[in-house]
Amino acid sequence: MRGVAAFALSLALTLPATAQEALRPQDAARLAGYSTSIGEALVQALAGGAPQDVAALTKALSGTPDIAFDETLAGPWKCRTIKMGGAAPLVVYTPFECIFEIAGGGFAFEKLSGSQRTKGVIQLREGRAIYVGVGYVAGQNPPAYADLPADFNSDGTVQTQIAVLERISPTRARLLFPSPAVESDFDILELTR
Question: What is the number of domains present in the chain?
Fold first, then answer.
């Protein structure tokens, strides 16, 4: 555990203060409303989801999170999107390909396959590993989060994204997206190796 903490500290110390993505007010509000967002979405998912989808959701949310920042996070992962609330109570997709790479005081993350993609960075913020990125439709070349207009939220094909990264084990993690800009009330990106 001491090695993990030292690695996290070394990542944080190598990150220039100006390199951390400044959060847009709407993304900071999503993060602040995390507990309410997940609670309301879970009620919808458990009340209206198909039994096999509820079982997949339960598995994705099982396990106690540990420190997310660890050099073993780097590399390829399988990732499966679970959408709760909104247009449908619960939708569970098939797994796709994702990757983490150590980059400038944190991790770069990208969902590499599927029609809905995401690309961004994960950095320590107030004791949590926070993902700041851009969701987009496959085939697009989206701008970086910092390059979007200050009041940008979504245009239907590109949207800002904020999530909390939780690492469960060397082979399990999850990105938790409160109040996504499109389609659902809360998204989970279940990560497995």
Answer: 1
